Amino acid sequence: MTRPTRILQVVKSLDRGGAEVLLSEVLKRTDRERYHVAFAYFSPAHDFMVPALEAQGAEVFCLQARNQAAMFARTRRLAKLARDWRADLLHAHLPLAGAVTRMAGRMVGVPVVYTEHNLFDRYHSLTRRASRLTWRHQREVIAVSGEVAKSLEALGGRVPVTVVRNAVNIDDFQLDRAGAERVRAELGVSADTPIVGTVAVFREAKRLDRWIEVARRVHSRRPEVRFVLVGYGPLDDQVRGWVREAGLDGVVHLAGAQSDVRPWMSAFDIYMMSSDFEGLPVALLEAMATGVPVVTTAVGGIPEVVLDGEVGVLVASGDGSAEGLEQGIERLLADPASRRAQGLRARQVVEERFGMERMVREIGEVYERALGRG
Among 18, 45, 166, 245, which is least packed by CB within 10 angstroms? Predict the structure, then answer.
């Protein structure tokens, strides 16, 4: 019997971000007779997803790099891991891990596949330079949206780029009425209190300062509305300060990291995103699968998913976006029937176009080409 192809996934951290959640979800649907998958990550302080991966029987290796410079210093360690683990293919995610993986793969002669999750031109200039210098040392590139693929054109066409749009587990992410009731009880609000929420890693790109400003504007007109931020990240302290400065203590609830976000999604009446840039956010797909209409900035691959006026409201990013997001929320709050209809349509869109089985199949096709078998 032919042994399974050994795939080593390489990522900077294993926090609960969109890319990291997808690693676990794809693993659940991977044909174990065809592929044997392990994971390597660099940052020991960011290991939120490790238990979920190990619970599925995957080996997880930490390369012990506490900063970006240390990541590059671990190139030989990653190359040794790839050789000792007998990897047939390395699959890297996000630019710094991608650059290190391409160098390691070249050292040991193991082909590399890379997934880009964000718009390339939004990265720091040094990050872009590291990508450019190593770009040719890979077989295939996956872009999570058409806009992400377009942003990679500046790197030239020497490596084929395939769009494999992000996906969501539509069986897991559906309306959980009992979970929603528990969340509302925890918040101390009634069943008919409108809740606007989001799930995010607290990073600059998410523009949570803008999100909180929108909450302040909406609350000034509709004091009954409550807001929920689920997540954590480098901007934890700043986010708490922004809430206090806006006078929204008791109005904006900071739920922290949640191992299961489904009850929270189910409690939301509207899902709001205020990002300046995105690839194709997994949490957005999860909210839509739960049947929640969205109000979001039209950045990255989001317009490829969100049909304005059909599953929610799209708002141009930049100056004036806070006002646009406020108006979008007001529009949905003022018309509950339309809001519910758009939530149902959001679920339908995800079922039709963003299921996990499609994503797993398309990634497998990329692997086979990279291995010279496609």
Answer: 45
Query: 């007109």: which residue's tokens?
Result: 221
Place of tokens 């523009």: 207
Q: How far is CA 327 from CA 196, 273, 311, in A?
A: 13, 14, 16
Whether residue 241 is found in the same domain as residue 99: no
Is 95 in contact with 131 (CB distance < 8 Å)?
yes
3-state secondary structure of 332: helix
Same domain for 242 and 335, yes or no, is yes
The CA distances from residue 242 to 200, 239, 351, in Å, are 16, 5, 37
CB 126 within 8 A of CB 69: no
172 in a structural domain? no
Distance (Å, rounded) from C-alpha 288 to C-alpha 271?
Answer: 8
**Domain, as residue range, for 53:** 5-167+355-370
Distance CA 210, CA 349 (A): 28
Q: Which residue type occupies 195?
A: I
Those residues with Cβ within 8 angstroms of residue 142's Cβ, 6 or more apart along the chain or in another chain: 113, 114, 115, 116, 161, 162, 163, 164, 363, 366
pTM of the predicted model over 0.85: yes
**Cα distance between residue 100 and residue 109, in whole Å:** 14
Round to whole Å and give the CA distance between 99 and 127. 9
Given the structure tokens 């979970």, which residue do they identify? 179
The pLDDT of residue 374: 67
Cα 1 off chain centre by? 37
Domain count, the chain: 2
* Token couple for 187: 């918040």
pLDDT for 259 equals: 85
Residues 150 and 188 in one domain: no
**55 and 122 share a domain?**
yes
CA distance 164 to 345: 22
Residues 206, 250 within the same domain: yes
Contact 292, 168 (CB under 8 A): no
Q: Are residues 313 and 192 in the same domain?
A: yes
**Ranges of the chain whose pLDDT falls below 50:** none
